Amino acid sequence: MKAVIINRYGGPEVLEYTDIPRPEPQADEVLIRVLKTSVNFADLKSRRGKKGKAEFPAILGLDLVGRVEQVGQHVRDVEVGQKVIAFPKHGSYAEYAIANEQLVYAIPDDMDLTCAAASPIVAFLSYKLLKDIGGIQPDHSVLIHSGSGGVGSTAIQLAKHFNAHTIFSTVGDLEKAHVPIVYGADEVYSYQDFSQQILNETNGKGVDLILDSVGGEVTSRSLECLAPYGRLVHFGQSSGEQANVSKDDVHSSCRSFLGYSLGTTRKLRPNQLQDISHKVIQLLHLGLINVHVGHEFLLEDVAEAHRLMEKRQHTGKIILTVHEEES
C-alpha cells in the first residue's frame, strides 16, 4: 500500500511517499481503508521529534474517515463495510490503517467525507473541553483562543449550541478575525490586547471559562481576565512557551486551572470518547456544528500541507485525500 513515512526527524522534506506492507489487525482491532485524513499541529511536533520517541519508519496522522475492510476475531460492535471515523494505532497517512475497536465510531453513510475527516480531533476535543472539563452553563461567558483554527472555530459553534451568554475569541492575526465571527463569536481580539478588552466588555468581571491551546504569555494574560470561580482549561502549547502561573492565581479567587489531553484520554480512558461519540456525530450529521475546512491536499502532497501549517497562514482544518472514491 501507499503511505507517507518518516525515517528521521526534521522538516517537511523527511516526509516520504512510498510503498509499505499493508497491516493486519489483531483480535481487538479493525483494518480501515482510509478515504481522508487531516493534518494536526501534533503531526508537526511528531515529525520534528518534539512529541515522544518514534519507532522508524513511522507514519503520522491522528484521525481518519474510511470504510472498515477487516475486523479482528474479538471485534463485536464494528462491521465490515461500515463508514467510520477513527483514531488509528500507528498513523493515518496511508491507504490502510489499524485502530482499536474502542476508538472506531460508525457514522451515517450519507455523512460528507470532508466533514467527517475534519471532525474526530476537533469535534471530540471541543465537546470534552466545554461540556465535561469546562462545565459550560447557559449563562457563562467564554473565551476561546485561536478562534480561526479547527478546534477554535468548532468550539465556538459548540459554545453557541450550549447557549453560552457571550463568546470572545482571539486570533494571531486580525486578518483572520472574520472566521470566528462567522462561526458565532461576539468579539475577536489579538493575542496582544485581549485581556484588557475583555475586562472592559465585562465591567471588570472577566469570563467564566477559557479554552487555551497557546500557552506562554497568552496563558498568563488569560488569568488576568478569568472571573472568580472561573475555569481555565489548558490543552496545548502552540506558542512553545511556558506560562508563568502560581497558586496565588487560583487560591483566593476560587478559580480553577485545568489540563486536558485527548491523546492521553485515547490511551487511558477511551470509554470516555465512546460515551460522547453518538452526541458529537449527531451534531455533525445534523449540521448543528460545521468543522471549518480551509485547505485540501492529496496524500502525496502532504509536505506542502505541513509547510502551510508551519507558516501559520491557514484557517480551519487541512485535509488530505487518500482515496478519491470508494471501491
In short:
The protein has 327 residues and is α/β, with parallel strands linked by helices. It has helices at 41-48, 113-133, 150-161, 178-182, 194-201, 217-224, 262-268, 271-285, 302-310, and strands at 2-6, 16-19, 29-39, 58-59, 64-71, 83-86, 96-100, 104-106, 141-144, 166-171, 187-190, 207-212, 226-234, 256-259, 293-298, 317-321.
Write the layout of secondary structure elements.
Blueprint: E1 2-6, E2 16-19, E3 29-39, H1 41-48, E4 58-59, E5 64-71, E6 83-86, E7 96-100, E8 104-106, H2 113-133, E9 141-144, H3 150-161, E10 166-171, H4 178-182, E11 187-190, H5 194-201, E12 207-212, H6 217-224, E13 226-234, E14 256-259, H7 262-268, H8 271-285, E15 293-298, H9 302-310, E16 317-321
Parallel strand pairs: 9-10, 9-12, 10-11, 12-13, 13-14, 15-16
Antiparallel strand pairs: 1-2, 1-4, 3-5, 3-7, 3-16, 5-6, 6-8
Protein name: Zinc-binding dehydrogenase
Domain Enoyl reductase (ER): 10-320
Keywords: NADP, Oxidoreductase
